[in-house]
Structure formats: structure tokens, C-alpha cells
Design goal:
Layout lengths: L30 H5 L21 H9 L8 E4 L1 H13 L5 E6 L3 H9 L3 E6 L10 H5 L6 E7 L11 H14 L4 E5 L23 E6 L12 E5 L2 H14 L5 H12 L1 H20 L1
Parallel strand pairs: 2-3, 2-4, 4-5, 5-6
Antiparallel strand pairs: 1-7, 6-7
Helix pairs in contact: 2-8, 3-4, 3-7
Length: 286
């Protein structure tokens, strides 16, 4: 799994040290210096500094609270696509096998192809209600399988995968490819219609389960380029942190600060969008 080497002289993979005697830049610019005047929301004093590779601690705590995990289980990424690529690159060598469904989000499939994985497809159809059957996944599992990649709710069908189905898939993986991980893209998890209940997160099903998502869809904030991966496996999580540091160093401090505001206002933001979804569904049905 150790695809990215760790360099112990770098500090950004952990919290900022109290005294940094080897900084490579000058004093950090403050946002207020660009805005021209202090702002009432407190963001004007934000330093435009590097963040940490794991991500802003307050933001990770907010994300963790919505998934029933610890803040240390969360790695903040530059959008959900960054998380998908890092996971594919870390877990899959050329020739390793990945089981996924089709149709799917094209860029997610591209990440699997570009790392040289052999992709085994499970077709989901309109006539079948786009429902995933565990036996169809089982038929494609081998000792070479390193990753099973699913989306719930799926893109583009919008059909969620029941937790019992995911549990069965995990049990089959434990029998046939016990070292493989189950990645569930939960980007649309909070996109419920009106007062319909939310899909529960899959991340609590086991240590080999990874959840990823972003603020781009349900929260209407794709311009922040803010996503995350959640894993309770410390080795994988460490590689995600070092991998993020090795590719983008850290997320934007401004994006992370605004993302905290989005999640703090999440109930208001998403409840409005749920009404829009319900109205759109009713209009379509009519």
C-alpha cells in the first residue's frame, strides 16, 4: 500500500509546529490585506497560509460528526475526484482488479483506468431498477480484486444501495478477496426528496470500508473544490495524507474556512434543496 514515501522533515502532514525554524516562505498574507477592510464574519483575519495535508481540524470534526466517526478518520481532499484518484492510485497496481458498476460517473472510471487496473463491470439496467445484486458482484470477485467501487445513491440513476446489500457484498469479499477494500461514493447521500429519510452512511460497516463525498452536489458548492475520504484503517489513512501532501500539499485555507460555514449551515442549505428535489420529482411524474 505504501505508494507515497514519507519525508519526515516536512511538517504539513501533521499540525503546524509551535516554532518553525526552517520555513521556506515569508509572513503569510492575511485575507484582510486583499479585502481592504475587516469583515464582520471574522474571515478577514484568515491567514492565507498552507493548511495541513489531512485538512482543517474543525472541518474534519464537522464531517466526522455527520458520519459517526472520529475526526482523525477524515482526510480532506480537493473535491471528491481527488479522493477517488488517491484511493485508486494507492490501492491498485497495474493489473490488479477492480469491480464496479456501469453506468457510472465517467471520471471515476477514468481514475481506475489510468492506474492500470483491470475493471470488472457489473451492468445495472433500467428494467432491473438499477438495483445491485450481491451475486453479480460475487461472480466478478477473484484473488486479484483489490477494490470494489460502488456509488450510493448511484450516478446517474439516483438509486441507493441498501445497507444489507452492502453487508452481503462485504461478506463475499471477506471470503474471496479478504484484503480488498469497499469504496462507497456517497456524494449524493443527503440528496433526499422532501422529507424522505437520508441514506445511512456505509462507513461504519467495517475497517475495509471507505466513504468519499464532497460539497459539490447536495450543498451546491462545487466552486469550493472540497471533498473528503473517510477510513478507519490507519495505514490507508496515513497513505491518503501523504498522498495528498505529495500531489497538492494542502487544500485552500479559504475553501476550508468557507466549507466549515457551509456545514454549519447545512440543515438550512440542504432542506431548501430537498424541497426543490421533491418539487422536481412531482413535476416529472405529472
Amino acid at each position: 500500500m505504501a505508494r507515497f514515501p514519507r519525508n519526515d522533515i516536512m511538517t504539513l502532514t501533521s499540525e503546524t509546529p509551535r516554532y518553525d525554524l526552517a520555513e521556506s516562505i515569508g509572513p503569510d498574507l492575511a485575507l484582510v490585506e486583499l479585502l481592504g477592510a475587516p469583515t464582520d464574519d471574522g474571515l478577514g483575519g484568515l491567514a492565507l497560509s498552507y493548511g495541513t495535508a489531512q485538512g482543517n481540524a474543525d472541518l474534519r470534526a464537522l464531517i466526522a460528526g455527520r458520519h459517526g466517526v472520529e475526526a482523525d478518520d477524515v482526510v480532506v481532499t480537493v473535491g471528491g475526484m481527488h479522493a477517488l484518484f488517491l484511493i485508486a492510485f494507492i490501492l491498485c497496481d497495474r493489473g490488479d482488479e477492480v469491480v464496479t458498476t456501469t453506468p457510472s460517473f465517467p471520471l471515476a472510471r477514468n481514475a481506475l483506468d489510468v492506474v492500470g487496473a483491470t475493471v470488472q463491470e457489473v451492468p445495472l439496467t433500467f428494467d432491473g431498477g438499477y438495483r445491485l445484486e450481491p451475486e453479480d458482484v460475487a461472480a466478478r470477485l477473484t484473488e486479484k480484486t483489490k477494490l470494489v467501487f460502488l456509488a450510493s445513491p448511484q450516478n446517474p440513476s439516483g438509486v441507493a444501495i441498501p445497507l444489507d446489500t452492502l453487508r452481503t457484498v462485504l461478506a463475499l469479499m471477506q471470503e474471496r478477496c479478504p484484503n480488498a477494500y469497499l469504496l462507497v461514493d456517497e456524494t449524493y447521500r443527503e440528496a433526499a426528496y422532501g422529507d424522505d429519510p437520508l441514506c445511512p452512511t456505509a462507513v461504519g460497516l467495517g475497517l475495509k470500508v471507505i466513504s468519499c463525498a464532497s460539497l459539490s452536489k447536495c450543498h451546491g458548492a462545487p466552486g469550493l473544490r472540497l471533498g473528503w475520504a473517510i477510513s478507519r484503517d490507519p495505514d490507508l489513512r496515513d497513505q491518503l495524507v501523504v498522498g495528498k501532501f505529495s500531489t497538492v500539499i494542502s487544500c485552500s485555507a479559504v475553501d476550508e474556512a468557507l466549507a466549515c460555514r457551509v456545514l454549519e449551515e447545512s440543515e438550512r442549505i440542504i432542506s431548501e434543496r430537498r424541497r426543490r428535489l421533491a418539487d422536481g420529482l412531482a413535476r416529472t411524474a405529472e
